[in-house]
Amino acid sequence: LGDQPDPGNLIPGFDIYRFFNHGQTVTLPLLGLFICLMAGEDVRSRRWRRAGWVALVLWWMLLFVTAGRGTFIGVVLAMASVGWMRKSLAWPWVRTMAWGALGGLLAYMVLYVALPQLQGLGPFSFLGYVVQRSIETPGSSRGALWSCAALMVQQHPWLGAGPLHYAQLCAPLGIAAHPHNWVLQIAAEWGLLVVACLGGVVVCALRALRRRGTQLPPGDTANQAMLTCWLATGVAVLLDGLVSGLLVMPVSQLWLVIYAGLAWGWVQSFALTASKVQSRTWRLAAGVFLVGAAGEFSVGVATSHRVASALEATPESELALLRPRAWGLGLFGGASMLSAPEKLR
After folding, report:
1. At what angle do helices 18-37 and 250-269 cross, to 10 degrees?
2. Which residue, of 124, 127, 130, 272, has the fewest CB within 10 Å?
3. 222 vs 5: which has the higher pLDDT
4. Phi/psi at 272 (nearest 5 deg)?
C-alpha cells in the first residue's frame, strides 16, 4: 500500500511483543535440537530436517526484527558457554544454531531492510529504536525497578513481602509491575531463604545434567545433542531472566515447564527400571495428579470467562483496568479491579 507499517503488527496476540521473545529463549534452542535429531538419511528425516531449518531461520529472523536484547544475549552466551564446556561434543548443536542465526540475519536484511527501502520506506523492525535506546539508557529504567526490589528485600529479608506483592508496592513507579530480574523478584516476594533453596535446585539440576553427560559415549550423537540443548537452554533462561519478566509471563512460564519436563524426563529415563515404569502406585499417582490439574485448569478457565462476561457490561473507563495478569497494577482479583478506579487515579 506504500505506507510505513507498524512493526508491532507482525506479532499479534501478545499484550507486549516482548512476551513473544520470552518464549523464544526456550524455543530457539529446542528448534536447533530438533534439527540435530533429524539426522537420518531417509526421506522422512530429510523432510522434517528441512522444515526444522525453515522454522529455525524464521525464528532467528523474528528475533532480529523484534530486537529482543535479553533473548539474543542469553542464547548467544549459552551457545558460547556450552561450546567452551563441552568442546566438540557441543559442536553439532552450536553449529546448527549459528547457521540458523546467520540465515535469520540475512532474511531480516532482505525482507525487512532492503525491500522496504527499495519502495521508499524505512526498515520494518524495532532494531534501530532499540539500538538508540540502548545507547541512551542501557538499563531502560531497570535501575529504579531493581532499587525498589532491593528495598523490599531490606524490609522483608527472610520470608519476603508476599507473592505478587512487588506490583502492589512498586507499580506506582509507573514503569512496570515486576522488577525484570528473577532473583530480585523471588527475594522481594518470597525471601532470601527461598532464593537460596531455588539456587540449590538449579545447581543440583545442572550437576545432574553434567553427571549424566559423563556416562554418555561420545558417539551417541542424539543424546549428546540433547544434553547440550538442556544445558544451553538452562543458561539462556537464567541469563535472560536477569533482565526480563520471563519468569512471570504465562507464555514463557509454559515453555519453562516444557523445558524442565523434557530435561528432567531425559535424565530420569536412564535410571528407570521396568518395575518402576510398570508400578501401579506410580500410575495411580500420575492419574490423580492429571485429573486434579485438569480440574484446576477447568475452574480457572470458567472463572476467567465469568469475569470477562461481567466486564462487558462495565463502563469503558473501568475496562481500562482489565489486565491479563493477576498482579496487574498490584490489584489482586476481579472485584478489587472493578472497585478501585478512583483510588488508582
Report:
1. 30
2. 272
3. 222
4. -70, 140
Residue 340 pLDDT more than 50?
A: no
Residue whose C-alpha cell is 512471570: 248
pTM score above 0.85: no
Q: How confident is the model at residue 134 (pLDDT cuts 50, 70, 90)?
A: low
Q: Are 45 and 38 in contact (CB under 8 A)?
A: yes
Q: Are 173 and 148 in contact (CB under 8 A)?
A: yes
Give the pLDDT of residue 196: 93
CB of 57 closer than 8 Å to CB of 103:
yes
Q: How far apart are CA 122 and CA 113, in angstroms?
A: 7
- What per-residue confidence (pLDDT) applies to 128? 62
**Mean pLDDT value across the chain:** 82
φ/ψ of residue 239, rounded to 5: -75, -45
Provide the angle, in degrees to the nearest 10, between the axes of the packed helices 221-240 and 91-108: 60
pLDDT at 277: 52
| Mean pLDDT along residues 178-191 | 90
Range list of H helices, the chain: 18-37, 43-66, 69-86, 91-108, 115-118, 127-136, 142-155, 165-170, 182-189, 192-214, 221-240, 250-269, 274-277, 280-311, 316-319, 334-339, 341-344
CA 318 from chain centre, in angstroms, equals 31
Residue 146 pLDDT greater than 50, yes or no: yes
Give the whole-angstrom CA distance, residue 220 versus residue 133: 45
Window from 75-79, 130-134, 298-302 with minimum mean pLDDT? 130-134
CA dist., res. 307 & res. 321, Å (int): 13
Q: What whole-number distance in Å separates Cα of residue 244 and Cα of residue 292?
A: 31
CA atoms within 13 A on the CB side of 75: 28
C-alpha cell belonging to residue 266: 531425559
Quick one: which of 231, 253, 186 has its CA closest to 22?
A: 253
DSSP code at position 164: T
